[in-house]
Amino acid sequence: MSNLEKQEAKLKQLNKKIKEEKYKIEQRLGKQIISQANLEYTNLSNDQIKLLAQQFSEFLKEKTVDH
């Protein structure tokens, strides 16, 4: 394997690891929000999830502007 091919393989592995870590963070964040808000998984439709995400995003934007 050439040096370039080795670097490409390492880059692919690193990108895969980054993607997996992002997924883990997204999962933990979602679980914490659901837990803290005392929401029931079974009662959340896709539309409700999108609405909650939008409201949470707007809340965070307002907090960032206030500082």
The DSSP helix count reads 2
Order of helices and strands: HH
Shape, please?
A: elongated
Low-confidence stretches: none
> Helicity level, as a percent range?
over 70%
* SS strand fraction: under 5%
Q: Termini separation (Å)?
A: 52 Å
Keywords:
67 residues, mainly alpha
Report on this structure.
It is a single chain. The chain is an all-alpha fold. The protein folds into two domains: 36 residues; 25 residues. It contains two helices and no strands. The chain is elongated. The N and C termini lie far apart (52 Å). The model has no long low-confidence stretch (mean pLDDT 91).
Offer a concise description of the structure.
The chain has 2 helices and no strands. It is mainly alpha-helical and 67 residues long.
Helix and strand topology:
Elements: H1 3-36, H2 46-66
